[in-house]
Amino acid sequence: MSRKDQQYPVAEPAGECARTQAGSGAYDKAVESRRSPRLPAFGQGLIRVPGLRLSLPCRIVDTSAAGARLEISAANAHHLPVRVVVMFVGDRAEVDAVIKWRTQRQCGVQFVSFFRKIESKTRAS
88: which strand partners? Predict the structure, then answer.
């Protein structure tokens, strides 16, 4: 295992989409295995790395009760650690998440906490 793999373990798509095997041995048909359906979403978000002052802007492509699919404008999905915080900008909420799968510009996250309201940081006059 290389140092890069130890620092940024790559999450596998286990459980997200199972595939059935045809008689010829080729994988031919995707079988949806989610517990709750995905719904389209068009919100803006931020992916924050706990313990670092790093936030990446993202677009929330779709959501379900258990997770979300995020699109990252820069090709940085492979560089994210497994544990992140997803901030839903429009809803002013955040949730702890685990990256379950990733491509160059997208990743699928599973929510592992309850949503928290983001408190506005206004100064008293």
Answer: 45, 93
Q: What are phi and psi of 113, to 5 degrees?
A: -150, 175
Whole-angstrom distance, CA of residue 82 vs CA of residue 90: 24
How many Cβ atoms are within 10 Å of 84's Cβ, its own excluded? 23
Q: What is the pTM of this model?
A: 0.68
Given 3.90.950.20, 2.40.10.220, 1.10.150.130, 3.30.70.2860, which CATH number is that of 36-113? 2.40.10.220
pLDDT digits (tens, 9 = 90+) for 12-71: 333 333 333 333 333 333 345 567 788 888 899 999 999 888 789 999 999 999 999 999
Residue whose C-alpha is closest to residue 107's, from 52, 51, 49: 49
Rg over CA atoms, the chain: 17
Give the tokens for residue 84.
Answer: 């992140």
Give φ, ψ of 107 to 5 degrees.
-150, 150
Closest CA to 36 of 68, 66, 15: 66
For the chain, the structural domain boundaries read: 36-113
